[in-house]
């Protein structure tokens, strides 16, 4: 199963690179769970003009995975809609409550039931692709 997940993530990352996918930034104050379907997958690809936001200030907080993409961190979010606040992954509503409208979001890794969602902000430069592979726990 883990090998299958890694292959899927590698393919999705390549697709994002080819298509030039960029993180999405929410603009409305009322974000609904259905809006999260707009969050694209970028994997380890870092689009030109974007940089990752480090979540170290939230390290140790439930739902923050720090071993992601060179240590920037990502939100660990339940994708099924069945998650509970007692589980390691954030529920969809918990994730919505952590969204900051100053930043953009993209999936950096996906599994069967959860996703790791990275936080991004626009920058002047950028690199096309990071060579580092993320690990799935």
Topology:
Blueprint: H1 2-19, E1 50-52, E2 64-65, E3 74-78, H2 92-98, E4 104-110, E5 114-122
Q: What is the percentage of strand-forming residues?
A: 15-25%
Order of helices and strands: HEEEHEE
Quaternary structure type: single chain
Number of strands: 5
Number of helices: 2
Share of helix, binned: 10-25%
Quickly give the structural class. alpha+beta
Radius of gyration: 14 Å
Mean pLDDT: 84
What count of domains describes the coordinates? 1
How far is it from the N-terminal to the C-terminal residue, by CA?
Answer: 12 Å
Contiguous runs where pLDDT drops below 50 for at least 5 residues: 126-137
What overall form do the CA principal axes indicate? Answer: globular
Largest sheet features: 5 strands, antiparallel
Walkthrough of the structure:
This protein is α+β, with helices and mostly antiparallel strands. Helix content is 18%, strand content 19%. It has two helices and five strands; from the N terminus they run H-E-E-E-H-E-E. The longest helix is centred in the first third of the chain and has 18 residues. It is globular, with a radius of gyration of 14 Å. The two termini are 12 Å apart.
Q: Can you give me a brief rundown of this structure?
A:
The chain is of the alpha+beta class and 137 residues long. It is built from two helices and five strands. It has one domain (2-122).
